[in-house]
Structures
1.
Amino acid sequence: MTERTLILVKPDGVKRGLTGQILARVEAKGYSIAELKQLNASREVLAEHYAEHEGKPFYEPLVEFMLSGPIVAIVAEGHGVIPGFRSLAGTTDPTTAAPGTIRGDFGRDWGLKVQQNLVHGSDSVESAEREIGIWFGK
Ligand code: IDP
Ligand code: MG
């Protein structure tokens, strides 16, 4: 089966009207969109999604941020899409993410407790499978 990854356009990206530009970059790279929906996340879904970060200082602000508005959840498909989308997204901190990346071009430090960095992308085959199950069902 072709590789699949979970992409989330976080509430900052949706609010700022950047969903289309983010999707355009995914498509321009040659990946296809297998699933797409906009939703308001629940605390339960976010607790599952961010289980690895529970207990970290940015965990609560991260969950509050992800609850602050609609999210666009996407399953993207194509060979190498997992590292490929991480590369399109850029590094976690938008201040220093490379120009040319989603976070580098559209993100910045807003002086908040959590990095508002526009997108999430799965970081491994195992995470992708787990996360697609959380957001789209098995
Ligand atoms: P990633 O999204 O690049 O994979 P992770 O380390 O998995 O980064 O962190 C999940 C999310 O938590 C980040 O995208 C960012 O929104 C937030 N975050 C991560 N590290 C920090 C931090 O040190 N301070 C504030 N927020 C953070
Ligand atoms: Mg991560």
Note: The pocket of magnesium ion (ligand 2) is lined by residues 123 (CB under 6 Å).
2.
Amino acid sequence: MDSSDKDKIVQSVPQTGFFGHPRGLFTLFFTEFWERFSYYGMRAILLYYMYYEVTRGGLGLDQETAASIMAIYGSLVYMSGIIGGWVADRLIGTSKTVFYGGVLIMLGHIVLALPAGVMALFISMGFIVIGTGLLKPNVSSIVGDVYSDEDPRRDSGFSIFYMGINAGALIAPLIVGTVGQQYNFHLGFSLAAVGMFLGLSLFVVTKRKTLGLAGTYVVNPLTGEEKRKAFSRIGIGALLVVLLGAAGIVTGLLTIERFVFTVSILGIVIPAAYFVVMYRSPKTSDVERSRLLAYIPLFIAAMMFWAIQEQGSIILARYADKRTQLSFAGIELQSSWFQSLNPLFIVVLAPVFAWLWVKLGSRQPTTPKKFSFGLLFAGLSFLVMIVPAYMNGTESPVNPMWLVLSFFLVVIGELCLSPVGLSATTKLAPSAFTAQTMSLWFLTNASAQAINAQIVRFYKPETEILYFGAIGGLSIILGLILYLISSKIHGMMKGVN
Ligand code: GLU
Ligand code: ASP
């Protein structure tokens, strides 16, 4: 898109009307708020739905398989951002892509709301994987479109949007979790569908008045010929996948384990291919090559971070259910409520961190240093979970404050890493590939969860000390290494901070 198009878009968006920010931010904030409400509400009960016995309304899967499915599902949800980025950039623009994404997500939750067993679970996952891939990267990228490049409100606009994400994630477990666990899982999932319906309606009703032309442009449209080629390739590819999948299921060759394993491999192959293509592209300059090399350790660090952070809704969720005293201080706690702790701490502490970075000004740590703090705190969040098992063994239920402490620590790390991660990706990716930076950043999470899918099955109360110790320890070691080489990486970033 050239700069006159960019100006036209910015001019079409009412520049005030939402806490001193462009009115479009209102629409984007609440669309993403409700989308995250539906996603995190669903995830707060999904693990329990999968492994609770049938008599308790669950599917009765074993706990290890359920954990592995949670991880691979999370991985696919972020991997499909690649599709969402492509559809928006080359076919229909971000705004329409967000709309179709929202529709698919809502359908996905509706399917889960029906009491229809394992098949419905997989169908729902298919809808939500594609839907989130279409919606999430694009709704964030429209945030960038409603400000001019020089607008000083831009960064704080992204921070407000980030609060929307976490506010949705905060209330979802309390509502969907409570209804899902106390009454009925399917009723819980139907509330997730209602949430997405509200977000989608709000988007459709308000976007004309608030977003102007933002999201309506197709940045790099396919020509007629390219379209024909792309569609026939996609058609053939999809047909092959369906045929192979069907043949695999019929012959019994395609088991859940094999499917999960394949996606785990993709989680490594896709980012590696991205790096090779960007590095070798003739459009990439020497300075950009150096920045790209600097980005590799940051990518790995972000992967390690998300691997731990995302286990909050898998391993720590199982811990909340099986290892924690749920009658506490006279209240009967629901295990799903613990999922509100991460976003709660984010909402409370994000402004503190924003203030801290501003106060430190030019003395604030460089991006590689912030990433290393992210790893140290993530590692600590797992190491503290060794203490209760070490002190009292793994038989007696643990005081819930241990989980509170663990979520608190991971959030300190998250606030060092996550808000700067996307901006670092934007600045370090070669300019010919900027359209893909959002997908590239989401790949840090997708790859992390692809690997998690293999790791989480090793957790059992009996292996707890080793499990938390090994993963937490690895994160701390990587954090220390990153800290030691941070000045070198910073140098290779060639002027990017
Ligand atoms: N919790 C974040 C969100 O839902 C994670 C996204 C990421 O991997 O950056 O937006
Ligand atoms: N902190 C996560 C994110 O930024 C939300 C969560 O894990 O609940 O959206």
Note: The radius of gyration is 22 Å.
3.
Amino acid sequence: MVSRVIPVDPFDLVIFGGTGDLAHRKILPGLYLRYLSGQMPEGSRIIGAARTEQDSDAFRAFVKTGIDEFVAEDKQDSEAVERFLSHIEYVRVDAKGTDGWSDLKDLMRDGVIKAFYFSVAPSLFGDLAERLHLNGIADGESRIVVEKPFGRDLASAKALNSVLAEHFDETQIYRIDHYLGKETVQNLMAVRFGNILFEPLWNAQYIDHIQITVSETVGVGGRGGYYDKSGAMRDMVQNHLMQLLCLIAMEPPAQFDPDAVRDEKLKVIRALDPVPSKDIVRGQYRADGDEPAYREDAGDPNSHTESFIAMKVQVSNWRWSGTPIYLRTGKKLRARASEIAVVFKDPPHSIFGVQEGRRGNVLVIRLQPDEGMNLRVTIKEPGPGGMRLMEVPLDMSFADAVGGAGDDVPDAYERLIMDVIRGNQTLFMRGDEVEAAWAWTDPMINRWEDNGDIPEPYDAGSSGPDGSLALLVRDGRRWREVK
Ligand code: BG6
């Protein structure tokens, strides 16, 4: 693969919650990799900020353990790690008090980009934003980065948006959805809008339906406390699957520019029909041998939270009217695989007889693992015996075709953090998008909470509850088997 690393301008990046799990696993190892690739300039600094009492050396030792554990061995270059660590400082800061803020201010430099990563509970966003301003640390050029969950419903998302808006302009706020940083997710836009081939067919006239699947093999063990208050709808659909749906369904933006792209995504969310109960299937995984059931993982024997959800969604606009989009995601399923399958309609007339030759094409975009594209086409079965038809895949693995999404392709966090420094908001959610997504999910969640809806049990290692299969069978369709 041709590697084109363009260094960003020097920056001071403050990570609030610098001693937390996300910083340890993703943010700091990601920054090390960007440093290793030459993208993070020597004049940059990373400042960990948290409540823990420790000095910069202790924090550097903590960062090093994250690199040791979460960076591939062939990228562990001890000299580079030492040089990277020399760019790191630590300051003890009390998000809700006055301690440490003047130390942080003393550390910040003029003349470099200032970014503040809020890798903390959303309840602290307001305190941090306010103190950054009161103490004269942030200015009109500074950027803040916030993580999901961005609220747990429309009201809380609005409250978070308005608390941030008191101190920062929308152009300074970077709301991360790490799905948007995935290589193949961006490829969705390249495939759709960089080729003439697909766009003329990309509508209800030619597409029968679309399936978006994000299937995970892991359970929620270890994070049951958080998950049980969220469930698959809040944890995955409102954000990650919604973003995939937007990219697959949106109109072509006039430019590849942050607001042009986000305007088009917002229109899709606003065009989503409310989903009736009959079109939603919620599931919960059962115990599997020694492996605990969801309720045990969640620590609540009566939990009604869903670890799986499947739904039939309709985008009510000119392009998509009548073509449903089926979503499904869940934990403890058979495979770890995410894909989008665009199932085209059958040809209108078969010259080969009724049964033969009336098969639809299917375009599958594999997001992970083994990123790639696969187009199912009909050909003649080779050899004698008349005109017999068969289906074959035109299969392209991105790794084979262009050398990667391999090792040299930055992971979602690496890319998104560099976009923050570059000041490019295209792959970040705008406040109105997040609110529109909650406005769509809220009534469904309220309905099942009000009705005490009980999710359907499913076997660990299966493809979800039977109801999920029935959701498509009812429409004369079936889920693709993901592997
Ligand atoms: C997170 C969810 O946002 O995304 C997790 O909170 C989920 O529950 C994860 O496992 C999936 O991300 P990825 O990149 O592994 O597909």
Note: The chain has 15 helices and 15 strands.
